[in-house]
Please model this.
Amino acid sequence: MGNWRASLIRLRPPLTPRGAFLLAVSALALLAGILRVDLAALFWGSAFLLLCLYGIVAGRVLRLLVRRSARTSPDFLSVLLSPADLAAGEEGTASVRVVLPRAFLPGLTVLLSIPLSWHGRRVEVRAPLVPGTNSCRIPFRPAGRGAYECREALLELRDVLGLTLTRLPVPLDESLRVAPDLDPLSAPRSRSAEGGETVRAARHRRRSEELLETRKYVPGDDPRRMNWKLYAHMRELFIRVGEETPPPDSRLLFFLDTTANARVPAAAADAYLDGMVEACGAAALAAMQGGVATLLARSGCAECLSFGEEGAPDLRAALAGVWWTPPDGPAPQAGTPSLPGGPRTRAVVFSSPGSPALDGILASMAGRGWDPALVLKDLEAPDASGTSRRSLPSLLHGLLFLPPPEGRIRLRAAALRTALSFRAGLAAETARFRGPPWRLSDVRSV
Model:
């Protein structure tokens, strides 16, 4: 049965809906002209029928010519996406080289399509081609972050009237990484290892101090700068001044909890995750620029990444392909060996209210002696009410094709129940983690 279906698909004429409609109309007109002996119906019916038949036959012939060119040319299709790492909304270019037959049949065109996809998000790179060798640069602009991939390009062979369409797949292995838009100015300030003073400012202060050899000890001074040799002779405590001392071994860990949460509405899940990723990345970038040793861990990834002051590109690349992790899948908690230990590590957890993995993450951090901060992202206003802005075509479609009233009521009720469930989870998490040892930041918009 499967072989018969495959044979029927191969034998099916490559007609578009417009071409199939026109072919049916022309066949009916030709039949009516034969039965009624109407010359006008015979003329128009035969003309459109021959036009559709020409499009089908010419498309088959051009397909054979393109396949022959692909077999004879080793570099039939080459694509180079530049730059390899983009930011959301930034324009990129695709340098394309395609070797096609030297001539097309009259009335036929060839269009190159490179579909890049990632979790339902798509980036279309399309350009018309001409006979012979094509070398062109195609601009494109991805709308959202992601780790896009393309396994095959498509050559669309069609006629100028849009009656026939033949798609010829070409193997292609290309990837595009679109990083999130991170703004460190919007991130909240985090505590550092020296009483709220960044490591860079502390180093500048130490270098600018008056270069005296020693001074008497004052309570609150750094005991690592104690002059013990002088204390052995004078039995008084003195401090070495102007001496460069290494900063305390303190690190800031950002844990991104991307465990799938049933409380987050499905219609807003993509935008919600993007906001959480951008908030975590902006906070990590602000810490990195302040000279704080920064670590990043997330659900579904056993590796804990470390970033220095110049690690902004690596941070954006690491956050480009973050997606929801199944609750029952491999979700490493904070107690895995890949995460650092020691009481000087401070953690900030970005999560959603009611996350299935949140209790385990916070408990593991508390068992390590850490003092974690919890950041919960709220829903945006349009998503919380269950409504969003609609475009003009969708409004016209709603006016022309009205759904049943009971269906619309069920949709609104489901959206309202999801929003209320999310609010209840947010209120419960706020009440549960507000006191010590937890610190909670309820983020209204990230």
In short: The chain has a mean pLDDT of 75. Residues 199-240 form one domain.
